[in-house]
Amino acid sequence: MQRFILSKKKQIMLISGISIVVAFISKLGFKNEVLAVWSLAVASIMGVAPIAIQAYQALKVKVVSIDLLVTIAVTGAFLIKNLEESAIVTFLFLFGAFLEQRTLNKTRSAIKELTEMAPESALKQMENGEFVEVKIDEVAVGDVLLVKTGAKVPVDGSVLSGEGYINEASITGESLSVGKEKGANVYAGTILENGTLQIVADRVGEDTTFGRIIELVEEAQDSKSKAERFIDRFAKYYTPAVLVLAFIVWIFSQNIELAITILVLGCPGALVIGVPVSNVAGIGNGARHGVLLKGSEVVDDFSKVDTIIFDKTGTLTMGKPKVTEEEFYAEDVEEILAYLASVEKESDHPLAAAVVEYIGETKLYPVEKTLVIKGAGVVAQVNGRRVAVGNVALMERENVLLDEKARAGIARFEANGNSLVLAAIDSELKVLLGIRDQIRPGVKEDLQRLKKLGVKNLVVLSGDNQGTVDLVARELRLTEAHGDMLPKEKAAYVEELIAQGHTVAFVGDGVNDSPSLARAQIGIAMGGGTDVAIETSDVVLMNSDFRRLPHALGLAKATAGNMRQNILIAVGVVLALLASLIFSEWMNMSIGMLVHEASILAVILNGMRLLQYKLRH
Amino acid sequence: MKKATIQLETLSCPSCAQKIENAVKALNGVERESVKVLFNASKVKFDFDEEKVSVADAEKAIAALGFEVKGSQVKN
Fold this sequence. Notes:
The complex is a heterodimer of chains A (about 625) and B (about 80).
Chain A: H1 2-7, H2 9-29, H3 33-60, H4 66-79, H5 83-107, H6 109-116, E1 121-125, E2 131-135, E3 144-147, E4 156-167, H7 169-172, E5 178-180, E6 185-186, E7 191-203, H8 209-222, H9 226-253, H10 256-265, H11 269-288, E8 291-293, H12 296-303, E9 307-311, H13 312-316, E10 317-328, H14 333-345, H15 350-359, E11 367-373, E12 377-382, E13 385-390, H16 392-397, H17 404-415, E14 419-425, E15 428-439, H18 443-452, E16 457-461, H19 466-476, E17 480-482, H20 487-499, E18 504-508, H21 514-519, E19 522-527, H22 531-536, E20 539-542, H23 548-583, H24 589-608
Parallel strand pairs in A: 9-16, 9-18, 16-17, 18-19, 19-20
Antiparallel strand pairs in A: 1-2, 1-3, 3-7, 4-5, 4-6, 4-7, 8-20, 10-15, 11-12, 12-13, 13-14, 14-15
Chain B: E1 2-8, H1 14-25, E2 36-38, E3 43-48, H2 55-64, E4 69-75
Antiparallel strand pairs in B: 1-3, 1-4, 2-3
């Protein structure tokens, strides 16, 4: 019976609304008082039933809820035969709850879009070798699955055979599709745009990257800030306090009308819902734009940030060194490059990789003997000739003569922030290469945007030498630059700034810089959707996309501001209502309920604005 | 100890969340501190001792409050 009534809330609301209209028409239009009274009584009794049931259920688990306040108020109004009030208040309360649910669903739409992208079924290879469609729960690690064009990848796994292009926007936020072939990793929730793949499942369900992102966002949306926990505690005692206050007023004034009006006016509605609504909409917006904000505490801290510290390699720069300058000291360029490539192909040094990429397709000679000299380079026998590839120290060791032109080149390349690779064949210098890590495109503009958003200090910390770091800092117009720093020193530097009273965010790749990420008030990981980054930081920029950082900060500020507005609306409304009860004649239960429901809708609509938030350039 | 996640109908009032939390906490065998009601995701998460209580018991307790249970998951 109880459940039946609750499930028919919407119908009850409609009938109660119609009864009220009938009552007013019969009273004002036909002067039929009797029908009016009966209609209002029907509206009141029907309307209060679901509210009373909810109040009773809450009491059973020791919660004094708003429903209880309203039930008592309506019953009181009914008993003193103020049927207009009792009918209108119940209707407004039901109608308000209905609208709240509709609009709340809107604020949650961003996360809902995300969860709906979760795969539901998969084509699994059975023992007879055929593929059969099964529910996603029936897929286990190690199963072989078939993914067809247009289908979602059901699990995290690797490609066994076939090739195709996958849109990984759900994981990385990047809308360009990525080519996949045998051995490549694929992720649950991404979409195969063309081709056919057979994959083997490595992680399934909640363990997939996608599953974890959803879990993280869900937890974040419901995590509570200090202010919110305070409001919750407050509301827990506030509601019973209103009940007690109304009771005391009734005892002393013997005025039931006044007592029940206080019950309605005191409802804490907008206060309890205002902050969660801002939170869910703000974090939802982030999730849609590849920014994971881990909870409202993070949003709050991040909105106050005044200092952002960046790791250099992999954050401000691409983390992929490239040959940017070259100088030859002999004519036979192609021959030199062939020898150089032959030696560098053998090495796994990051600079060697840059050199090989720069040379590209070339003739290769067999390498006979290789000797790695630590901190200097490589010496090898190639095609009967002695080839030395390395830094200036290696050249000196090999007794290679560096003439004036070479020395000038070395000085110039270094001044431009390059690392140097020199190559000598049979103790004769042939070529000088300058290799530099590229600054990420657009970083400069993004940093300016951060400044505009009110960040005062932009600092770069790096393990590279001070000269290189200074160069990056000058080009990007950073406020401070410190080189030659070990991870431990970086973390100490973060602590020092915090001790000076700054609110510090640290942006790193989430792997090397975990001490600093943990120390800073806000750890921001440039994660390509990797587990470590997702676990250890407070904010994750998906797909390592630096462009998302200004959006993240702007969003955090907008969300924090939105919460403050909502608290202001809620507290303001309760104060205004109580004041007008004391100082004015016109205040009554129905108006009080109307204003309350309106204020609840106002905070929800205000929160919804965050879904549309975009950083203005 | 096992971990349960129960998916509910869309929750729309924060006090509903508190009701559900108290109801689940009251069950014998449920780890009190672990009970978490995700208001926005409309989910309940908790740890429980499978010898004392089952997920079905928790679902029943929630249903008795008038909330529809959409599904549940148990993990070790």
